[in-house]
Amino acid sequence: MRRNGLTRQRSLLTPGPLSLSLAVRSQMQLDLASRDCEFKEVTACMRRLMLSLLGNAEDYSVVPIQGGGSFAMEAALSSFVSRADRPLVCINGIYGERILRILRLWGVEALKLVKRATDPLDPEEIGEYLSRNPGVTHLCLVHCETTTGIVNPLDAIVEEARRRGVKTIIDAMSSFGALNIDLSQRGADVLVTSSNKCIEGPPGVAFVIASRELLENAVQERRSFVLDVRDQWLSLERSGEWRSTPPTHIVQATTKALEILHEEGIDARRRRYEKIRDDLVKELEGVVSPLLSAELQSPVCVAFGAPSGIVDQAGFDGLYRHLAAHNLYVYSKLHLPTRSFRIGCIGEIQSSWIVQLGCAFRTYFRSSQGRSAAPMSAQETCDARVKMPAQTGGEPQLSFSAETAVLHAGYRRDAVTKAVAVPIYQNTAYELDGDLNHIADVYNVKADGFTYTRIINPTTRALERRYAAVDMGRDSLAVASGQAATFLAIVNLSSGEVGDNVVASPYLYGNTWNLLHNTLKRLGISVRTADPRKPETFERAIDDRTICLFGEVISNPCLIPLPVKQLAEIGRKYGVPLVVDNTTTPLVCRPSDLGAAITTYSATKYICGHGTTLGGLIVDNGEFSYRGASRFPLFNRPDDAHGGIVWHNAVRDVDDLGKSEFLLKARMTWLRDTGAAIAPFASFQLIQGLETLPLRMKQHCANARIVADVLKEHPKVRRVFYPGLFEGADREVVEQTLNVAYGHGAMVMFEVEDEQAGRKFIQNVDLMYHVSNVGDARTLVTHPVSTTHTTVPREKREAAGIFGGSIRLCVGIEDVNDILRDLDKALSAI
């Protein structure tokens, strides 16, 4: 959905997946097509994972069904209940009523036991009913009745039925994956669930989990080919194939979702849902109240009583339209018997969405508004609530273009004064007031909060959020310099044992070369060199101790392009992340679009743009999962560097910092322990520079192209290197890697006759500044042999394309004719 040219993020607060996790989405991009053997393996894995999550029940089998959960329930009822049976349907919500309607539609003489939707089913009452009606053959009920969010006592009810020889068929759509169900000691005879509820997978696959005894003896009159669970089960057991299969990538993504659930654990997922539920209740306090008491409430969704004035569906529709206008969605029906509506807690719901929901509710029910209230702006809704500085920024409600994100992402205004500029929180520590348990949670990475500026600071956090949005990354971490960013990004991947290695391009900035080849070696991390013009050399250099591939998108200073997309694909093949330095081409290249896992920047350069401030940024592009990988043990086992924390568990307990386990680990260990912290005032200055980055980069690139074209024709210039002039294979890489809407970057390298000529050129510039920096708004010139590459051995330097007569230009945003006049003057002096 687009409005005013901006893409709106859909915040679906419903009992269905808000949005699929990145790992699941990436799996959906693949399709095994007709490769039957692989499809059978994925199907078998999917079935095994389902049983594993149910206690590895040996006496049960899993039958996948194409379609939704309701269709799977029809298949289960069709296969296991005949017209000769007398099932009892226990009802305390609309989903129990649905089971009854299905049975009666087929002419089955179904009995019913009805309770209020706010009362749980009573095992003793059900037992007494079964004793009075010995002809009952099946007991059907909903485990988690999401009409109101009530949980029925499954184990006790199943035990009552088993003692009387009654089979149980359970709707577990909104409980499997969120509540522990153990079939290892024999439980319900049949469970039905679907992939897009608490499994958090894609829609399109549902499951009938049934006892093998029941499957073997299920001989019913056929209602339809696709509803025959027993026949489908026999096909799976004998051939590994199942009928009416959905598209293969849906099965693949469902399997990935089950793997993630298995890693997270049902208890951890339940706690995640409970936290969202509790945050919803707290946020809406004083506006709407939960329908159920806490001990009855499901973690999956929470039902709220309709506020005064909403007495029918039409009244609720006014509220729903108001929420939808602000990109906030709740279940779109009012449950009239209880006058309640529900909000789901599953999926990737962020705290900012909950805050926005609270704001929208408050504005709708202000005294000046009624059921026909016109929607207010998103800005007006958030005025209804004052937040602490840690939360003032929130997340942007809209998905901005880079040109807009540099101005708006990550921070809106000060909560008290309404000042719109990001303030400078020039302080080191933060008062630890309030509940001591909460304070302990902040220090133990179980809750968001500010502790010490070496680790996190409100000004710096605004910069981090903003640049992550600009670069379309998951999150970013700001540090003291670009060199610190490269160092932390690589060592954060280390195993902690001697023997790790990095496969890197040789075309690197001089100090980066020294960091990799000397400093990291002293930490037990070796470097293997591979040729970016031959991506296969990276692949050949990878072994089981390789922690990353590394290179500069456009190398500084010799401008060799890195085949980011191909290297990312190689990295994915072997489970190795690609880390790229994009310092020279922010916005001109977006590594997240090309599959790079991590991007680093010296923000000192173009992001700042004014040569005033040191800073670095590490961006996690969300393209890589470290879970289960043996080469990354510190991500997958308790980390002694932070009290035995397991990072992929910790990232689920925090909201603001919960977008990247890679950066959470880097922040809480390497940044904390090395002290490579950026100053709050530096973060503020980088934010000022960032605001004009899109305008400056376009002008840099336009000027650089003109300068390169002129130098190419100058008689004193032997060679010119500029990405816009490349031909052949380098040209193909550049076109694949750079966004030509911006240009080809601001750096130009050219060669004069020899080192003496290079020195004379430098001594005769007037307008241009002879400095070793790059990325200033002013045009900068450097003679690498006498500055940045003096410590690099000659053979290494020349192998990287740096010779005595090499001159590096960083073309600024001045009038290009003034730049050209200064170049001609200096060249004429040679």
From TrEMBL:
Enzyme class: transferase
Swiss-Prot/TrEMBL catalytic activity: (2-aminoethyl)phosphonate + pyruvate = phosphonoacetaldehyde + L-alanine
Keyword Nuclease: no
Cofactor: pyridoxal 5'-phosphate
EC number, UniProt record: 2.6.1.37
SUPFAM superfamilies registered for this protein in UniProt: PLP-dependent transferases
Gene Ontology annotations of biological process type: cysteine biosynthetic process from serine; L-homocysteine biosynthetic process; organic phosphonate catabolic process; transsulfuration
One CC-aspect GO term: cytoplasm
Residues where N6-(pyridoxal phosphate)lysine is found: 197
Keyword Transferase among UniProt keywords: yes
Domain Aminotransferase class V: 43-292
Coiled coil: none
Pfam family, one: Aminotran_5
Source domain of life: Bacteria
GO MF annotation, one: 2-aminoethylphosphonate-pyruvate transaminase activity
HAMAP family hit by this protein: PhnW_aminotrans_5 (MF_01376)
Function per UniProt: Involved in phosphonate degradation.
Family to which the UniProt record says this protein belongs: Belongs to the class-V pyridoxal-phosphate-dependent aminotransferase family. PhnW subfamily. Belongs to the trans-sulfuration enzymes family.
Subunit structure: Homodimer.
Protein name in the entry: 2-aminoethylphosphonate--pyruvate transaminase
